[in-house]
Amino acid sequence: LGLAAHRTFGSQGHSPPSHGSGHGDRSVHKGSLQLGRGSSKRRIGFEVHEAPGSCPASGFIWTHGLTSSMGDEIGGGWPFAGIADIASVMPVTRYDARGHGISDPACSEGYTWHAMGSDVVELQKAWRKQHVFLGGTSMGAAASLYAVLQEPSAFQGLILATPPTCYETRRKFVPFYLESIEMARKEGLEEAKRVASKKTRPPIFMETERGRNQFEAGWKTKSAMGLERYCAALEGAVLSDLPGPDQLKTIEVPTLILAWRSDVQHPLET
């Protein structure tokens, strides 16, 4: 699984999208799942990728990043559909996090990383695989960590791609999230996009055409979320942080961390 992840993330800027090309033998099952109870009940959309010869007793659950979605990843957003290639090793479940993509908005518990970790745990229980591995990028990496802490015996490994800021560094970014929320509520998402377009993007995204196109792909997804869901997701990010160092030390599963340089919102120091 780790080797498959290295191939997936190591070629993002150079290989063509794999979804639908050269993978005719891979099946994709789509559906929705009800999570929560009572007033917190909601449905999330998911899809399961399977390939002949993959390990049927194992499974990999992938969680996308903030304001992204399954459709965004396949349509050109990071990580450019490559996650589905891991299905050659074991079945892969991808899903739209609460309030993202085709999933229902969150209820009273909001959009915190801890709450999203609970959704991952519910997904794992519904899937009923013997060996389950987790992975995610940025927000998805954080949700995966919280899931493992909530159910330590349920998961056998982690792939954490571009982990987000944390602790003191994260607190420095809170004003930027609040500024984005205020801008969107006062001026609308189009103006928020215009302001964002003037900000410096990580160099890795500027090295290839696909990376440069990621901005437009990402904002297409943000616009589709609508103003309320977009702002609610950012408010969840304001209230979130990684688990404390003492908690992280209790995680004893094999973990692959895939980080890159020159991205202030996903720094190597995390």
Short description:
This protein is an alpha/beta fold and about 270 residues long. It is built from 10 helices and 7 strands.
Can you give a write-up of this model?
By secondary structure, the chain is of the alpha/beta class. The chain contains ten helices and seven strands. A seven-stranded mixed β-sheet has the order 1-2-4-3-5-6-7, sandwiched between helices. β3 (58-63), α2 and β4 form a beta-alpha-beta unit. α6 runs antiparallel to α8. It is globular.
Averaged pLDDT: 87
Q: Helix share of residues?
A: 40-55%
The count of helical stretches stands at 10
Strand order of the largest sheet: 1-2-4-3-5-6-7
The arrangement of helices and strands along the chain is HEEEHEHEHEHHHHHHE
Poorly predicted sequence stretches spanning 5 or more consecutive residues: 12-22
Biggest sheet character: 7 strands, mixed
Evaluate the radius of gyration: 18 Å
Structural class: alpha/beta
How much strand content do the residues show? Answer: 15-25%
Principal-axis shape: globular
How many E strands? 7
- Give the termini separation: 23 Å
SSE order and pairing:
Blueprint: H1 2-10, E1 27-35, E2 42-50, E3 58-63, H2 70-75, E4 92-95, H3 113-127, E5 131-137, H4 139-150, E6 157-161, H5 167-187, H6 189-197, H7 203-206, H8 209-225, H9 227-238, H10 245-248, E7 255-258
Parallel strand pairs: 3-4, 3-5, 5-6, 6-7
Antiparallel strand pairs: 1-2, 2-4
Helix pairs in contact: 3-4, 5-6, 5-9, 6-8
